[in-house]
Amino acid sequence: MDSNSVNGNVQGAKDSVYNSEVGDHAQSAANTVQNHPATQNLKDSLNNGPVADMARDQHAKTASEFSNLSNSRTTPNQPAGTGQPLTHYHSFFYELLSWENPRATTISFISVILFIFAARYLPALRWAFKILYMVLGIAAAVEVGGKLVLSQGLASSFRPKKYYTIPREALESSLEDVEQLINFFVIEFQRVLFAENVPVTIASCVAAFLSYWLIKVVPFWGLSLIGVSCIYLGPLIYMTNKELIDEHLAKASDIANSQANQVRDLAGHHTARAQETVKAYAGDYSAKAQSYIGSARNRSTSPEVASSKSMANAPVKSEPGTAPKYSASDFPHAPKQAPTPNVTSHQEQYEQSQFGGQAVPAS
């Protein structure tokens, strides 16, 4: 045995002894620290102290509220205005937005806000594609490398005996929930559109009007953030100041009703006056029309006289085959003297005749 091997064995023995001693000292030090009274007091204060008790209490309350929220998905007893039953999401969203389970509602509100900011500032879609191509690339590289080196693919060795499939019951339950959720929005839109609840319709109109103007200056994510904040914080503000808000709403309703009554009374008064005026004018015009009709009847002749006059003034019509009757006045007078010399015109002949230009002879 040469000197180098001897020196190597000695050095190895030294290292093993040193390492064992160091390990023993480290283990003993760790045990000493763990069993120290200060460490035990700290562990007891963390596990059994007020902070731990509060954490466990809050965790139990939060789990209970989420359980209540999940159990609230039941079909409401009150149907829609058409008589058809509502969806179980009506009860769910009412329970969520009424802040009856404040921890669950707060967690859902913060989750929606974080989702909006993540969709705005985080390239989640790019990250999803990046993770996908990295996983697929590693799987392909491990499979090819294993077949080249070990003659057996490594990725295929982790392949399960049966691929995972979604159970039919779970799929049908999910599809039923999706159907109920879609019908919730469809029914609520129709209830708002056909004014089943007038205040809700007015509030929706105001929200749509403000959104129409805000979308010109506010991006879509900002408008979504405002809408979600109003949906969650509006009921909270109302529940916190319910008495004050109800009092002001009652006063506003009384003022609106009094103004409506005044307008209704004023409209009825003016309508009555207008009806009286119309009746007066109608009576006057009816009396004038009757007087005009009476005077016209008095001025008119009897039907017998009118018919006789019309028959007398009617032209004589000859019947076929009968000669018309003429009188002497229908023919001109014959001349009784010779024509005057050097007078060629018939008018001059007539004027120089014994009639002297008269239409009929002198008696």
Entry keywords:
disordered C terminus, mainly alpha, 363 residues, 13 helices, 0% strand
**In angstroms, what is the radius of gyration?**
57 Å
The pLDDT mean sits at: 78
Task: Quickly give the structural class.
Answer: mainly alpha
Terminal-residue CA separation = 201 Å
Gross morphology is elongated
Main beta sheet strand tally, sense and closure: none
Summarize the structure.
With 363 residues, this protein is mainly alpha-helical. Helices cover 73% and strands 0% of the residues.
Could you please describe the fold and organization of this structure?
The protein is mainly α and 363 residues long. It is built from 13 helices and no strands. The longest helix has 58 residues, at 242-299.
How are the elements arranged and paired?
Blueprint: H1 3-34, H2 37-48, H3 50-71, H4 88-97, H5 102-121, H6 124-149, H7 154-157, H8 168-193, H9 198-214, H10 220-240, H11 242-299, H12 303-313, H13 346-351
Helix pairs in contact: 2-3, 5-10
